[in-house]
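Look over both lines:
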Amino acid sequence: AYDPASSATASAEALSSRGGTSVAEAEANKRSVDRNSSSGTTSSSLSSPISTTSYSSAPPRAIIDFSMMETYVIETPLFPIILPKAFEPLTSAASVSASSTETAASTTKLEISVALEEATSAVDTNVVAQAKPSPQLLQAVTLPLLPKTLMQSFTGRELYYPESIEALATTGMRMTLGEGHNEWVQWSGEKKTDNFLRIHGIEGNMVGNTDEWYAALDSSQEVLVWAGKSVSKEGYGAELPIIKTTSIIRQSPKYLAELLMDSSKVKVYNKMSLGRTDEKVFQTGVDTQEGSFGDGESKVVRNLTKPPMVSSIIEFVTCMHARKLRPSDSEHINGDGTTTSAAAEGYVVVSRAVTGGEWGAENKENDDKSKNGEKLVRNEILLGVNVLRAVPGEPNKTELTSVTHVYSPMIPLMLAKNAGVKGAVDFVRDIRALP
């Protein structure tokens, strides 16, 4: 704010220092104004830019009269700024010797760059959107359970990097381990599963690996089912059941891996699917080795399903990855936790919901209505794992071990286990029914 009272003294002192009217002269001029005001006359030869019109018991209030003072102008894109000549910066010795009696106002041009706040914000947001997520988020997205405390921090790009995908695949395989080798889940077999294991001499939640075991499981076409509870109660979805199944599919591991990754074939084995689209493809080919995105195939997909007797459409946005098994993977998938030097004939397919950023359900760009105007309800595959291993000596048969952890806001918690078991078993049956 401009304070005329304090500026008057400052102007006088400045003028004095630059060879203009001295402080003493300014005071004399002020006394002259006082005398002339009382007699009804006003001097026109005053050097001071201050004039007064009346007196009262309160201190006199100065009024700026720019027509009576030397000024200079700063031009800006928005408006001109007029300042006393005394405030003009000295640029040369000639300026100092200039006569203080000149009355013509000088003009100085000053270039000012104006950055619009909205444009700056848009650029900054774009830069942030392209930045690599923090190491903390990259590591958190590969854990068995996503940390609750970080759910609002995920950018949706944590699985855009091959190192994250590889770590998630390792986590997925370790989640399939049974009793005594799994530190994250406590498995409990369904009644039929426990009976089958007991009949074939298997104790606990382990599975067999003998020729007799594979033959019995194949001939019975049984689907072994376990319901798991998360050891940790802190992760996102820890209260939801984790479902595990083991079965024999009379198709090769590669056939099944390519089938699961092919979005155009989802309706073949999922009768409730309305279609799945590839939203972002990082690399194709389940047999790819040492590609730009590591091994195997990776992409983000969007799947729409319409369960019976449900008016809404269920939407899943998921990152999927499939690659061939390696010898080093045996320690993660062998029921006894041992390793083997030979390469396992098979594949691993892992899935996890993509959350945050452009994929967040709260993102305004993600329309909550289908093309037909039906409401979309976002569900999440918190973790999906399919370990596909060829039955020893029978390359066209696959031992399929699956782990499914799903969140659906439409299913009450008390019904989540039954719904999860039914969905897992139906998936195996639908795959078996393929020609």
The longest strand covers residues 376-391. The first helix runs from residue 4 to 17.
